[in-house]
Every structure is written in structure tokens, then in C-alpha cells.
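Lab notebook, bench 4. The sequencing result for the construct came back, and we need a structural model before the next group meeting so we can plan mutations. Quick request posted to the team channel:

Model the 3D structure of this chain.
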Amino acid sequence: MELVERKEEVHWLWKHFLVSQRRICGLMGVAEASCRYVSRRNDAGLRERLVEAAREKPRWGYRRLQLQLEAKGMHVNHKKVYRVYREAGLLIRRKRRKRLVRAGVARRAVRAANQEWALDFVHDAAESGRKFRVLSVIDVYTRECLALEVETSFASRRVTRELEKIVAERGVPEAIRCDNGPEFTSRHFLAWGLERKIELVHIEPGRPVQNAHVESFHGKLRDECLNASWFANLFEARAKIAAWKEEYNEERPHSSLGYRTPAAFAASLARCGKGATLENPAANAGFSLSHNASNRNVFSEEGFTRSNVV
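Done. Here's the predicted structure in C-alpha cell form:
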């Protein structure tokens, strides 16, 4: 408690209780001379000028108001300005931004297709300057791109409509990993996940690395498609991005899949039966995936499988 507040408490106690001022000052740790001191300063002029300046600029703080007073020839110490500013009740109360807090949880190993999907958005613009967003959905295990939808905006109902199309084709995933955007935290999206019995895993705010698979995918999409293409309009953007999606799934070798395409890897899983897991596909690439020759046979020697490499 500051001295000013303690002096106010002393005056209040002395006024309401039959106790000497000396006794109260001793209990509160305030010097009697300080408590009995009456200031002779007169801040009426400064107060009046501050109030006038605050009426002209109601959202300015005391420092800007002090600069305005100095521009008019009134030079006052900033501490005095702040004291009078507070006593006049001009203090601006700024609303603190509410920050979403989510507890981090250990990420479980992904062992099969449809166990976890990852969702996120990437942004770009057409030649006309019209901005658009791309909703990307990938299967974390098979690395397949399940959707690349292009729109100028996405409401949560639009997102769930696209997810329903994928569910009708592939079945319901066990979990969906996404960030904390309004599309993924709306009541409609949360109710949809609850109705479908899908675990919605929201990453911690400011931690995109917790959704690393889709972030890595966006790097490839940006480098090979968005930065390499010129979109005259939204329809052309949809056509080119859809063509790249097919190329990514059917033609582009993926390093973490032993340089097989996601479609080929998913097909090999399907031949093994539902819920099957494969040996780490990177071990069958035919060459080292690391620049370090000592790590060439790390998967075959230690018997790692894709189920325990995340």
C-alpha cells in the first residue's frame, strides 16, 4: 500500500473510531508530520487546462496531453501532470485483450489411415487483387490431400459441408487437428464434431508447430503451386489448385513415404486390410534419406516401423 493510500486510511480510521491520531499513525506506519501536512500547492490552473485538452482529445493519454500543453507554452513536470491527470479522473481504462488458453497435451502416435486429419487455411490473391482462401484437409498418416477448396471466405457451415463430403467417401476420422480460428471454434463446428463423435484437437495459440503436417503441406502448396501460378480469377485458381492436388496425390513422390506417392501408399494400406500398418516406408526407398551415411540403415537396424515414427 502506497503512502497516499495509507494516509487516507489513517484519516478514515481517525474519523470513525475513538482512537488518537498518534496511535493510528503508529499502527499504519505513517509519520505524524506526514499525516498532518497540508499542501499549499494550487493545481487548479493545470487541472483546468488538462480537462480542456482531454475534452478535445478524449482518447489521448497524459503524455500526449502534456505535449499539447507544452506546445501552448505550459511546461510542467510529467509526474505532476500524471498526478493531476489521475486526480481529475481522466485516466483511460483500456480493455485488455482476452487471450485463449489451451493446455498442451502429449500427441499420440498416428498408426493408421483416418486416425487423424489436419485442417488449416492458406491465403492468396488473384490478378484482380481479389483475395481468396484455400481450405486444406490432409490425412496425417497417408499424407493424402483430401480437400483443397477455394473460396473468398469460409464459414463454419461451409467447412463442415466439405468435411461431410470426405466422410461420405472415406468414413469418419477419429480426430481432427486444427487451430483456434473462428471457423474451428464456432458452436456449429463443435456440435458437428460432437454429433459425429470426432475428437477435435485444437492446438495451443501461437504454436503452429503442433499442426506441423499441414504446415509442411502448405509449404509445398505455396512453393509448387501458388507462387508458381498466375490466377486471372477465382475460377482459374480453383482449376489450377485442383490440378495440383491431383498431381500431389497421384504423381508427386513423398520423401516420408519412401518416395512413393500418397495414393500408392494408401493403396498398399488398403491391400493389407483395414487398420493395417506398414513397416516404415522410408526404409524401402533404395537409398539413404539422410545426408549422413552413418544413418543409412537406421530403420532396418533398429526395427522402427511407421507406427512409432511420428
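The two ends are 54 Å apart (CA to CA).
Will bring this to the meeting.
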